Amino acid sequence: MCSREFIAFYRWCAAYCLEVAPKFEDPGCKAALFSMAQTWRALADRVERAGDATHGIRHPQSVTEGVTPHG
Fold this sequence. Notes:
Layout (H helix, E strand, L loop, with lengths): L2 H18 L6 H24 L21
Helix pairs in contact: 1-2
């Protein structure tokens, strides 16, 4: 995968966290999902700023294997 594919995946993860958070009644779960969304966005931004250079960020292929945006 190239860096822009990882960026898209990270942004999808953030969006998914925001999508499912309101479905939880537990405030702690909601807060955790909102925090996870922020972390995914920050990671996407960091990789985007880095361009094609990974600057030590490793992207294991297994992270995205079998994951689909609507799966």
